[in-house]
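Thread amino acids onto this structure.
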């Protein structure tokens, strides 16, 4: 058991001097701080979701489903918080954003290695996103590892095969027989549903602030985001509903 150091404070434990000094606006505009805080908070939540998905994949592989459900439920709860944070960013008007947008240079949320890593860990493995991270960088290394590692969907498929269900449609048609798999599938749909909601709110927020302008870093902005709305990490679980 680890002893608690005598005299440790809240600020010490959370490394608050380091954390709170990480917001460094490059302009003198009031609203740039909000933009930085929102995106840094998202990266922290992404870090936690990656932590949870790694645990869930391991637990599913071990057949330990109840704690895996807890980790997956936590992911979808975090997604809800992240989606709500777009409402805070949406208080930034087009005029407010234009005042400091130039300070962002070529940086873009499109370059978030953790977001792509999370997609890979879910099972959305598009290798083209490796090209946005320089070879040898930490982001490139992590994405390469996630691309090669078993995904959450791989873990779910492995569980279905081990337990002997012919297909996910069969699981849903006899949910009482395959209840562990049925619960697992619904937890995955919760995550996919929340991811779709996050994408949609992201699109609306970008449209509200910059319309159809090109995004920072040269991305297509709202047009690119609109193209992602149909993406599903677990498409088989959506498709089977038509056949029930």
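Threaded sequence (244 positions):
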């Amino acid at each position: 058991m680890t002893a608690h150091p005598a005299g440790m404070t809240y600020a010490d434990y959370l490394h608050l001097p380091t954390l709170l000094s990480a917001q460094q606006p490059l302009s003198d505009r009031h609203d740039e701080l909000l933009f930085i805080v929102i995106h840094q908070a998202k990266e922290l939540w992404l870090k936690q979701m990656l932590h949870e998905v790694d645990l869930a994949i391991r637990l599913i592989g071990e057949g330990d489903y109840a704690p895996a459900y807890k980790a997956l439920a936590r992911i979808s709860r975090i997604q809800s918080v992240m989606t709500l944070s777009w409402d805070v960013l949406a208080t930034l008007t087009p005029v407010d954003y234009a005042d400091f947008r130039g300070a962002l240079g070529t940086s873009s949320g499109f370059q978030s290695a953790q977001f792509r890593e999370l997609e890979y860990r879910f099972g959305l493995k598009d290798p083209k996103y490796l090209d946005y991270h320089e070879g040898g960088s930490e982001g490139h290394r992590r994405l390469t590892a996630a691309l090669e590692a078993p995904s959450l969907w791989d873990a779910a498929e492995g569980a279905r095969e081990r337990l002997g269900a012919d297909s996910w449609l069969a699981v849903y048609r006899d949910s009482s027989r395959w209840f562990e798999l049925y619960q697992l599938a619904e937890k995955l749909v919760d995550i996919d549903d929340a991811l779709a909601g996050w994408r949609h709110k992201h699109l609306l927020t970008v449209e509200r602030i910059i319309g159809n302008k090109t995004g920072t870093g040269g991305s297509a902005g709202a047009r690119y985001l609109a193209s992602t709305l149909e993406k599903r990490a677990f498409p088989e679980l959506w498709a089977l509903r038509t056949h029930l």
